[in-house]
Amino acid sequence: MTRISAPRPLAALALAAAASALPGSPAQATDGYFLSGIGAKAKGMGGVAIGLPQDALSPASNPASATVLDKRVDFGVEIFIPDRGAGISGNGAGLNGDYSGNGANPFILPEFGYVRQLSDRVAFALTINGNGGMNTDYETNPFASFGASGPAGVDLKQVFISPTLAAEFAPGHSFGISPILLVQGFRMQGVQPFAAASSAPGSFTNRGTDWSIGGGLRVGYLGQLSEAVSIGAFYQSRIEAKHFDKYAGLFAQGGGFDVPESYGAGIGITPLPGVMLGVDVKRIEYSKVQSVGNPLSPLFGGVPFGAEGGPGFGWRDVNVFKVGASVEATESLTLRAGYGRSDNPVPQSETFLNILAPGVVQDHFTVGATAEIGGGREITVFAMRAPTNVVEGAGSIPLPYGGGEADIRLAETSVGVSFGWGF
């Protein structure tokens, strides 16, 4: 299998220490609340990476890709600006109005990757990256008419730390495995009136940030079918996480908040020298995590927030499609573009609670470039725009909360830069 060359590095351990600051970084929502891509090169191509590895972050998408990457380290930073909000109409309890959830912006999101070959067939990698999350900050509280005080919103951040071991088990075919350490934090504020419907009202809102750790597994396959075609696939298990004790009265199962399983496949094609095309498909099974997938309706069947089978955000499973291209414009400059499309996880009937978590963008348009700057070093930049998507509520606000409809919206803009070094 052909290895992808890279420039010379600085000390990987120093960069790993810098990346360990990631748990303090606010997170984002793109494919639901998963990232639309990992690694600056993939982000410039719409997120394509499963069958087309390009840098030291690629093993976070497909662990098997470590075998085709030369020794390298990549460190990147993304500036992420979401535009989120909600509108309420026809409500008999005084909630009507248009609300902006943009009290906190922008967010700085670093990521780190390191790869080295242990032998001709075996490779090691370490990736540290934000996997996903959600942030809303409504300085004008949409629930003030219920008696809520202060700003309203949530802040969920998730970071994956993934050591990887990959091996070429036959010429051109590799398998990789990554145990995953999850570090996640959550905070909710400004929804005090809803605590009356909780199994533990004192552990529902305004408890500050609570932290949780968890573990799971990612496996992947990468195959070189010819010099021009490569394919890949991955499976990531559900990541079992310690419960958020401070929010045991909010999330189902006493504060449970696992990361849902996901899986996908991709293909990379080099139709002409210097031209690469890639396509990824992916599925994320949000509905299998009670705190995310359960609808609000159990609340009106006598099951309170925080209980087994209790209310959640009502998210459904999503399918994701990504396509991207890169062209070597000169010997030292590569240009990229891409597009990603994700299903909307929020049904029209579940928009009320999702005022706090409007992860509904669907279309992602990206561009990027890599410039070699001498001595084998390189700089990669990218930009992403996800246009505003609005989900109009339909039977979304239950009559006990005044009825009417909640419409939610989200748009996203991000830019980023990454530095790559090789050994």
Automatic annotation (TrEMBL):
<comment type="similarity">
    <text>Belongs to the OmpP1/FadL family.</text>
</comment>
<keyword id="KW-0998">Cell outer membrane</keyword>
<feature type="signal peptide">
    <location>
        <begin position="1"/>
        <end position="29"/>
    </location>
</feature>
<keyword id="KW-0472">Membrane</keyword>
<keyword id="KW-0732">Signal</keyword>
<keyword id="KW-0812">Transmembrane</keyword>
<dbReference type="InterPro" id="IPR005017">
    <property type="entry name" value="OMPP1/FadL/TodX"/>
</dbReference>
<protein>
    <submittedName>
        <fullName>OmpP1/FadL family transporter</fullName>
    </submittedName>
</protein>
<dbReference type="Pfam" id="PF03349">
    <property type="entry name" value="Toluene_X"/>
</dbReference>
<keyword id="KW-1134">Transmembrane beta strand</keyword>
